[in-house]
Amino acid sequence: MPSNSNTIYYTLTDEAPSLATCSLLPIVRTFTSAANIDVKITDISLAGRVLSSFPDYLEEDQRVEDGLAFLGDLTQDPAANIIKLPNISASIPQLKDCIAELQGQGYAVPDYPENPQSDADKDVLQRYGKSLGSAVNPVLREGNSDRRAPKAVKEFVRKYPHSMGKWSMASRSHADYMRDGDFYSAERSVTFADAEDIRIEFIDANGEVTVKKALSMQAGEVLDSMRMSAAALREFLEQTMDDAKHSGVMWSLHVKATMMKVSHPIVFGHAVTVFYKDLFEKYETLFDELGVNPNNGLSSVYEKIESLPRSKREEILEDVHACYEGRPELAMVDSVKGITNLHVPSDVIVDASMPAMIRNGGKMWGPDGKAKDCKAVMPESTYSTIYQEMINFCKTNGAFDPTQCGSVPNVGLMAKKAEEYGSHDKTFEVDAPGTMRVVDSTGNTLMEHTVEPGDIWRACQTKDEAIRDWVKLAVNRSRASDTPVIFWLDRNRAHDIQLIKKVEVYLKEHDTEGLDIRIMTYVEAIRRSMERMIRGSDTISATGNVLRDYLTDLFPIMELGTSAKMLSIVPMLKGGGMYETGAGGSAPKHVQQLQEENHLRWDSLGEFLALAVSLEDMGIKQGNAQATLLAKTLDEATGKLLANNKSPSRKVGELDNRGSHFYLGMYWAKALAAQSEDTELAERFAPLAKAMANAEKDVVAELERAQGKPVEEEGYGYYHADRAAVKRIMRPSATLNAILAEINS
Amino acid sequence: MPSNSNTIYYTLTDEAPSLATCSLLPIVRTFTSAANIDVKITDISLAGRVLSSFPDYLEEDQRVEDGLAFLGDLTQDPAANIIKLPNISASIPQLKDCIAELQGQGYAVPDYPENPQSDADKDVLQRYGKSLGSAVNPVLREGNSDRRAPKAVKEFVRKYPHSMGKWSMASRSHADYMRDGDFYSAERSVTFADAEDIRIEFIDANGEVTVKKALSMQAGEVLDSMRMSAAALREFLEQTMDDAKHSGVMWSLHVKATMMKVSHPIVFGHAVTVFYKDLFEKYETLFDELGVNPNNGLSSVYEKIESLPRSKREEILEDVHACYEGRPELAMVDSVKGITNLHVPSDVIVDASMPAMIRNGGKMWGPDGKAKDCKAVMPESTYSTIYQEMINFCKTNGAFDPTQCGSVPNVGLMAKKAEEYGSHDKTFEVDAPGTMRVVDSTGNTLMEHTVEPGDIWRACQTKDEAIRDWVKLAVNRSRASDTPVIFWLDRNRAHDIQLIKKVEVYLKEHDTEGLDIRIMTYVEAIRRSMERMIRGSDTISATGNVLRDYLTDLFPIMELGTSAKMLSIVPMLKGGGMYETGAGGSAPKHVQQLQEENHLRWDSLGEFLALAVSLEDMGIKQGNAQATLLAKTLDEATGKLLANNKSPSRKVGELDNRGSHFYLGMYWAKALAAQSEDTELAERFAPLAKAMANAEKDVVAELERAQGKPVEEEGYGYYHADRAAVKRIMRPSATLNAILAEINS
């Protein structure tokens, strides 16, 4: 591998961020090149990943490099410096759309095999599996996670707070979860003193043993196993629906099918078949024949019945509607289009939907378009309790006040696919009564669960190296920011009991004198963090991988109105750094607006912030003072952009993503021209600052003129776009293009 | 004072307990006399206290000893052994009723002066003041408080749990309280290093100083001062009514006007005049003339307008009803009789009404007799937050399950009228704008508050000796019961900051090795206690005086269904002991049933339990082994009584209070006859055991026959009963009377 010391790898992803990249990068490179830093693009888009999985199906000139694999290798390089933009965590429907689009563009990738029978089908399915769900993050996150609100953003929000829905003390909203029979209640966990080969086995009623998986555990590694009872889950779902119906609140499901991509779609599917119980019972045979998969949501019914005669379709649709009679109102994803919470699993992800509800005074949107109180159902109780705690807190103390709020930065255990993130290949839907067990190389049973058909069983691994680094990162962040740390570890949970032992040992490796470091259950921890937060104090949350994911949306959305404005850093185990941007997803609605109005409301603030930390780290690691100066001036420019309100507007005709890039460039150039630390850079950027200032009116006018009509570009695809076409769309200002061409010439 | 070593002083109080005493004592004395223990009655009834206050108004033969003063002196005797039954904490209306009854019986006690003008009137008012509210407890409680659920009771409840209302997660009920402007937010506190004479002063707008009170502080004493803003209170009340109206829940007030007998009636009065704002504004002049006092509730309006012509009265009543239009539904004390929560202040005491609501699934009774969700308004936030915490907890975890629940015993700081309990003579309703301040003997201002007319200002004292003894008691109880202790002290509250310092010092005086002792805010403490409680674990709450009062109803009502079954011990500072019974009040409804049906459902369980501890302590302190044996066998008898369900029934014709006393005596005699520790006692009680067993059917039949018709006894008064008449009512079984006469002859 060549030296990467002076290279920033900037990921090309999907949807809005990939569009924004096309506008932003030419500006960024104008600056970084002055410090001899190369910004290289690596394609990790869904389409790119699909194409790179099937070289044998493609013409030679259609084949693409596997960008994700490249970056995966790069994470092992101490000089790695990666800026990672949000990408699609594809659901099956999304993946199938992408495949169809690629096929339409002439790429002979195979169909997604719904019912793989042949070995060839199974091979295809296995290859596609690598592009499903959270496929990118587990590969790249070769370190733990450091997420925090940048000072500039926090200051901006204190002055210009986002709106917060009012909470009523009489709100009926709440979060409900299983009290028994779920993963939490049946979790077992062991730590391996020495390296050990283990097997996951199923023993059927006749005692016949099937090896489901063989694994090599490292010394110090933690292995959990857990079981969710399908019967208990279905009974719970039924009860919650009855209860919501009875108490007159809407019913809403919240899972994380994208991340827990094997277990949670099954949970989602149970919700669909319980809610529409009469429908699925009546058409059991037909739906089987049609290949309806409730795990993909009610949309699967709509999709599969398309092939039926009209009269039959109408009969089924009537039966769908009949189901609503005995059920509570369903919370809607899109009440205008009639898209309910049970339509597709990717629409109801916990970490996005729950903060939205809480920020909205505990209300979700009903079928009539009105905001209403809601029973938020999160079957697996492990992490759900924190939402109920926050709901109770808001009922008692009112909505969080962004102008007064402290912050809850996160240090997340993430490295080496820690915990549930690494469970996908160890998750099984049981199809016969029996026992799932984990045995060591000598045949000793380490953990076991009695299981029934339909139960979900999974195992999760956590590497000792990751835990040790996580503790170090937490201590370092506490020291660096003079902020207390709470390790969110539940002394009643099997896995956390193992972790608490390790945390207590590894804390001793550090100087913790004068630091306030505590270990608390999730509910205690969130309560303390909130109590401090409303009094303006910050508290670092040191959490496991799932809570990292949840909290880095939950708190930012309260504090900042969005998680996209967070700094998200992955200090790699091997010494490199990854700087993630915009945890808020890849914004398909933004693309829709662009297509209809040629206005892109994506805010690249996350990219600005990530780039600044990326440059700052490069400055330190490579002793590149110019990089350090670029970082500093970029932060100044970002602060100015916020203060002058040059972020993209949501409305067509106003400043959009492209315009905000122009302003960032102008402020950055001005900041460099104005500084006296490095006269070479000052002189270099003074003309650019001047040119951009002079051109401000023209550029803004040109950008505005481009808006207001649908985008009609040849070769433009949703998943796989022709880059030249994207360039025409995203760089419409001839004046700006000319200025950049001039300075880079 | 003669030696009290072998004397138990048993208090004669009011209402149901005083009736029960007449039946129980002859049985008790039959046993105690065997151990040479004398059980003497001391009258501390409301009527007795009134009579003893006015010897100069009475005929010589009408004069009575001041039983309360006698017991007050006795508390200083290391040999003191007092069994204290529940007595009336009189509101002004109750006191006036009592006066009228005494006058009707020929006692020339003076009228209660509503508007004292003359010095004579003021003297009368001052004498009556000593009988108002919690007048008895502050005199007798010359020690801190040790309250816990007796093992026998806890075991009984685990087997035969009381009913608990179901909690819905969608419940709208909540507790609301002031966020600013109340006592909590304006509390100041100082600790005096040395003895110091201080003055409480009011400075008016012209700088003129009025001394409101001079006090001598002891070394180490804590003095607090606090202010509740009338304007803030009224605005808060108005807001809560609007909010309840808007969100469709009932509105309910919860204060403690009996205990905080100066400050809380004023708070209550504001609630009345805000709720019925239009009424009080319209009739301001008339009501002033009539002497309507809203601090006595809406009942004061009803009472005072009696003197008006019918047409005027009807006009006013129509205007009362018109007030309900713009207001939320009011929670009812008695929906059948139309008695609302704002009728009289003594009906809405926090410690009784809030647990009842929480036990009832968060519901109170509406005007239509239906149980409904409620906004429970407790203006002063200091202690209110714990109820909101418990409500949220029940919404999340469901109702407490008595069969699984752990216990929350209390060690309460109570000695020397600690804290708010001693505030009555230092509470002032401000009548002009200015400053209230506390100055030391050299004129230095120690604490001050800017005040407006109507504001309530009060000071509270806590003696160092009491705090030190409280810490000792908490450590002792923790050690004796092997139970963790939480000191409920709020590090954000001025008073508690002083206490925390002392607790930290005094804890060092004890061996706390191996004990789990923590200091937590009220909300943290109740949360932790509840989390442990639902998992079956006990947690001692070491609290201040008001929380002692509140918690020793709140937790027992959840755990045991009633607070009357708690052991309530006051280990006196001077070494004596007081054993309180039945914290559940003196049960006026029971008396009503007795009068109508001659059935007394009062449960003397509290007396049984208290007597056992009283005897146990006497055994230890006086080296009286027979007392110890009596205690042990009494507890056995009580356990048997519970197990055999021989407690009083609520229904006429079934076993009542008198019958339960018979069974207690029979089981006690049997236990003594069966033991082999003391053959003298065994032989002495064997005949009684036999006689009672043989007479069981007859006695029960005789007791049953007495029931079912109204009591019509000459000389029977509600407050001041002829003891001979009470004896005829309460000892109707000739068979039982004969058996007792026989053994005592």
Automatic annotation (TrEMBL), chains A, B:
One of its GO terms (molecular function) is isocitrate dehydrogenase (NADP+) activity. Its EC number is 1.1.1.42. Pfam families: IDH. Signal peptide: none annotated. Keywords: Glyoxylate bypass, Magnesium, Metal-binding, NADP, Oxidoreductase, Tricarboxylic acid cycle. Its cofactor is Mg(2+). It comes from the Bacteria. It catalyses: D-threo-isocitrate + NADP(+) = 2-oxoglutarate + CO2 + NADPH. InterPro entries: Isocitrate_DH_NADP_mono (IPR004436). The keyword Aminoacyl-tRNA synthetase does not apply. It is an enzyme of class 1 (oxidoreductase). Belongs to the monomeric-type IDH family. NCBIfam families: monomer_idh (TIGR00178). This is Isocitrate dehydrogenase [NADP]. It comes from Candidatus Seongchinamella marina.
